[in-house]
Amino acid sequence: MAICGLFRSLWTIEQRGGIVESVGEGVIDLAPGDHVLPVFTGECKECAHCKSEESNMCELLRINPDRKVMISDGQARFSVNGQPIYHFLGTSTFSEFTVVHSGCVAKINPQAPLDKVCVLSCGFCTGFGATVNVAKPKKGSTVAIFGLGAVGLSEPRLLELLGSLVLI
C-alpha cells in the first residue's frame, strides 16, 4: 500500500488544508509541495464502491474509528516516550504534521488560500448525494426541505442548479 508522507497542517481546525512534505513508495498522484485537503472517507480507486456511481464507501478507506494505525503495516506513526499515539479517522489532523494514506487527501489548486479552504464535510455531501442520487428531482419539480442544518443548507442552490423549484 502506498502512503502519502508527511502532511503539514496550517491551522488548528479539524479538516484543515496542508502541503505535502513527502510521499511514500508507490505514490504517483501526489508530490512534495502539493496542496491537499484530508478526507475521512478516502478512495482507493480500485474497489467496487470506488468504481461505482452509487457509493463512495471505499472498502479499504471508509471511516473506521476503530482503525488507529496505518493500513500498510498496522503501525502508528506517532509516539510519546515510546508509547504509540493512535490515528483518528485516518487523518490525525489535530497535529502540526501527520501521515495519511494517499487516498485520504484531495489535491487542490495551489492558488487556493490555505487559510480559507476546508472540506464541507459529510453534511453537504449527504445533502448533495441524497438529492442527486436518491431523490433525483426533475426539472421544474417542487421540493420541500425539512431542516436547515448542513444537509438542508446544501439543497437550495443545488436544486436551483437542477432547475427545480424550492419550497422551504
UniProtKB/TrEMBL annotation:
It is an enzyme of class 1 (oxidoreductase). Residues 18-108 form the Alcohol dehydrogenase-like N-terminal domain. Its EC number is 1.1.1.1. Transmembrane segments: none annotated. One of its GO terms (biological process) is formaldehyde catabolic process. One of its GO terms (cellular component) is cytosol. It catalyses: a primary alcohol + NAD(+) = an aldehyde + NADH + H(+); a secondary alcohol + NAD(+) = a ketone + NADH + H(+). Gene3D superfamilies: Medium-chain alcohol dehydrogenases, catalytic domain (3.90.180.10), NAD(P)-binding Rossmann-like Domain (3.40.50.720). GO terms for molecular function: alcohol dehydrogenase (NAD+) activity; S-(hydroxymethyl)glutathione dehydrogenase [NAD(P)+] activity; zinc ion binding. It comes from the Eukaryota. It is found in: Cytoplasm. Its main location: cytoplasm. Keywords: Cytoplasm, Metal-binding, NAD, Oxidoreductase, Zinc. It holds the Pfam family ADH_N. Its cofactor is Zn(2+). Homodimer. Belongs to the zinc-containing alcohol dehydrogenase family. This is alcohol dehydrogenase. The lineage of its organism: Eukaryota, Viridiplantae, Streptophyta, Embryophyta, Tracheophyta.
